[in-house]
Structure formats: structure tokens, C-alpha cells
Amino acid sequence: MLELKNISFRVEDGNSKKEIIKNVSFKIEENSFVVVTGPNGGGKSTIAKIITGIEKPTEGQILYKNEDITQLSITERARKGIGFAFQQPVKFKGLTVFDMLSLAANKTLNTEEACAYLSEVGLCARDYVYREINSSLSGGELKRIEIAMLIARGTMLSVFDEPEAGIDLWSFKNLIRVFQKMREHTGGTIVIISHQERILDIADKIIVLANGGVQNIGTRDEILPELLKHSNTCRFYKEV
Questions:
Q1: What digits encode the pLDDT tens for the residues 91-102?
Q2: Residue 239 lies in a domain
Q3: In contact, 193 and 161? CB cutoff 8 Å
Q4: Which of 101, 115, 128, 164 is 20 to 30 Å from 221 by CA-CA measure?
């Protein structure tokens, strides 16, 4: 479904260029759940931005459904079914959850349809559907609403950049349930940038990035035990 071929990314650093991503190649299959992990500064978030079109690679090629999308913008990629969820969801003053779901679906929803999307992410629809998207919503609530928007859009490839950032443990556990439900019932491919054990534990494939390059790729059973042996590589929530 998605293939990165020899991707490199450099940025200006004074009078020289700093290499953030170095010759990264991997494939992501259709209807799979993939977690990209590794130490901070290893290039994880940059890879997410390159996949979604926020950043363009300095070198290399990106294929999506066998089409070269390397030079396509984030808007053009979104039209092809690629969605991105930021670490900190954006707030929209004056717009309600219902408004945003309708925009995501690209049509005017009725209340029942909007509530169905909210129910998919475990929110009590009548309490949220007409609420304004502002600071009265918690980080966990905002992230679940953002996921509902991706579901409404019908994205074939959904990319999440550290969805656990800035939320409490209770909300994190609810997010895990939402991701599990997405992969069981919604379909499509999910790529998550994360270093949390609970998210790694539900992955089909784990890609480990370090120092801007691919350190390891394999199934959860192949990769996770090794990561747990070297817990300084990843930060984990511990169950309470």
C-alpha cells in the first residue's frame, strides 16, 4: 500500500546541512497496524510528516498504491485517503464537533450520523455532538474527536503522531480501546508514531528508527521483547 524508497531529509544548519533522515526504506501493507518507534530525536515525527506531505524528502521516492506521491502536497494526499492526526489536536473557536464531523465527511450530516461517529470512539454522543471545540475539552476528548473525524473522512491510511502526548493515564487507556476498535471494525491502515508499550503491543509490525535510519523491522513478537530488554530506548506507561 505504502512504500518509502531510500528516503533522506536534510535541513539547513548554519552554513551546512543536517541530515535528519538517512536512506530510509520500508513497506506498509494494506489493512495493517504499524507502529514506528525509537529514541527521541531518531526521526519518527519527521517520517510521519514526510508520509503525509507536510515535509518533502530531500531524496528518495514515496509510493502509495503504486502511485508516486513524492511531490504531492498534504491536501492532494488527503484527497487520496491519507489522514494525519497531530500530537496536539487543533482547536477551532466557534465550530462545534458536529460542524467538524460534517466538514470531515464532506457533506452535511444529520445528528444521527454524527453521533454514530462519536460512538465509534467511545464518546457519549449527546454530550459532545454540539459542543464547541475549545479548551473546555480535555486532551483525551480532543484526540478521540480527531479520530472520529478521520473515520468520517474514510481515510485509507491514518497516521498518528504520538497520540499519547499530553493526556492522562485514564484517557490513554481509552485511546488504546479506540485504536483496537478501529482495527477490528473500521478497516484501513493505521500508522502510529509512539514509544508506549500498550500501543506497541497491538501492532502487526514495528519499525524502529534511531539516528535517522531504520534500526529494525519486524512483527510485534520479533521486536517488542528486544525493546523491553532495553527500556531506555522507549518510554512506557506502567499499569496501575
A1: 667 888 899 899
A2: no
A3: yes
A4: 164
